[in-house]
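Page 37, continued from 36.
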């Protein structure tokens, strides 16, 4: 591996580790402090409420820890493989997006392995009725997907422009 690429890999791994530590730290706090009560952070908007979630895929898989773990591991493995195989060709946005997704995926996987479910603690039901309680890992996955989609769209636009320029250049040579 080239030294330049090693630095880029270290940067991506460091991003994942920092995000993972932040979420796991918040989950430890929630587990120790919020078991029997909620804590208001922004009155009428945001509170911290402990909730252990044993579901996955937005409730499509319920109380089947083996299936949830298998799905989680397969998705993480797929993303890592994609990252390894395409690293040289990826934009920084794509790498950041995948880093966020991996951090969230690893953090929720740790919870499932250690506790049989994901520890959630961010509660916005005061402003969005019936909205699920979630955690930073879920936020990371959402942000990562958005960054990945934008980076992919930008890449496709650039490729379209480049293809158009190449076609025009060929027409000019004829």
């Amino acid at each position: 591996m080239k030294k330049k690429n090693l630095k880029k890999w270290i940067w991506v791994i460091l991003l994942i580790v920092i995000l993972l530590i932040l979420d796991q730290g918040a989950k430890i706090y929630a587990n120790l402090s919020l078991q029997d009560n909620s804590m208001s952070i922004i009155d009428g908007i945001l509170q911290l409420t402990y909730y252990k979630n044993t579901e996955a895929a937005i409730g499509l898989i319920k109380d089947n820890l083996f299936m949830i773990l298998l799905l989680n591991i397969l998705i993480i493995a797929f993303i890592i493989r994609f990252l390894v195989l395409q690293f040289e060709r990826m934009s920084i946005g794509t790498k950041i997006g995948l880093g966020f997704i991996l951090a969230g995926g690893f953090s929720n996987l740790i919870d499932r392995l250690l506790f049989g479910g994901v520890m959630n603690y961010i509660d916005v039901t005061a402003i969005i009725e019936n909205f699920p309680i979630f955690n930073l890992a879920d936020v990371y996955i959402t942000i990562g997907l958005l960054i990945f989609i934008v980076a992919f769209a930008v890449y496709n636009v650039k490729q379209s422009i480049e293809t158009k320029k190449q076609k025009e250049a060929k027409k000019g040579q004829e």
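The chain is about 65% helix and 15% strand. Flag for discussion at group meeting. The longest helix spans residues 136-173.
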